[in-house]
Amino acid sequence: MSPSSEPSSDIGNDPASFFPLSPPLPLPAGQTEQTLNEFFASIGFEGSPKEEMRAYWMQDWRRFVYTLSLASSHKGACLELGANPYYTTSLLKCFTDLNLTLANFFSDQFAGPFTEKLTFKNPVTGQADSYPLTYSHFNIEREPFPFPDGQFDLVLCCEIIEHLQIDPLQMLREIKRVLKPSGHLVLTTPNVSRLENVCRMIAGVNIYDPYSGYGAYGRHNREYNRHELALLLDYCGFDIEIMFSADVHDNASNNYASVAQIAPLLKNRENDLGQYLFLQARSARAGGTKRPQWLYRSYLPGELEP
What we know:
This protein has a single domain (25-190, 222-249, 277-305), classed as Vaccinia Virus protein VP39 (Rossmann fold). Helices cover 26% and strands 23% of the residues. The chain is built from 7 helices and 11 strands. The chain has helices at 33-42, 50-71, 87-95, 168-178, 195-203, 226-235, 259-266; strands spanning 44-45, 77-81, 99-104, 115-121, 128-137, 152-158, 179-190, 238-246, 276-283, 291-292, 304-305. Helix 2 (50-71) packs across helix 3 (87-95). The longest helix is centred in the N-terminal third of the chain and has 22 residues, at 50-71. The model is unreliable at 1-5 (pLDDT under 50).
């Protein structure tokens, strides 16, 4: 098998019959999968590549819904990092009372404008709707956030940490700084230890993300598993209140190895095999001031936490 080949034959049974890969999808009240799909199909913003965006939401719309379920119980001021392409933003606008502040980063050369117009068919009213978007533009792992201490009740950091190249602690420490005391973080990210990756490795297929036409931040530079996120957030002074993994699109594990054959070996971690990790954490105490050795290397000894 060549390094780029993708096995295609199904050599096992449905992975969901062996593991709890997908918790029940927490649909907003009054909504069905069909109404939400119609909603996502209606979302547009100036300059968006329609076919690329359609492929994106069709694959990942369940992820947006799981994220909404973690955010919907909160009120007050909310910072959504990496808001573009605004699918989660649209859900938050329609199904929560959160006061949204948006942030994006496209490139060091990006000069604006820092406003966009979001259009969609409102799933609650059934009417065409629009929403003016204004966002701050900054690099979250190299720059201080342009917000004062303790401004936000909730920060959303969804599908970002896996793209960072240099210093996830910079981002998490800034999130903690701009949160109010006991404020909350909702974080989502691909699960590097997902069942599909286990099966890929058994088959000798590479699990790393391809290079991206969107540049160095367009690819996944470092994915995490559930244990690592728990360690990292604890080090930063957060208490995790909710954490789960979930599949959000078709599971291709059996294209690489028989799930039926390997299932007995994975029973001890059957609850962390989903494609994505979702968590809610509370800012609870002061965090560490160095860098943990399990995640960082080639720093001076005094900069690393044993």
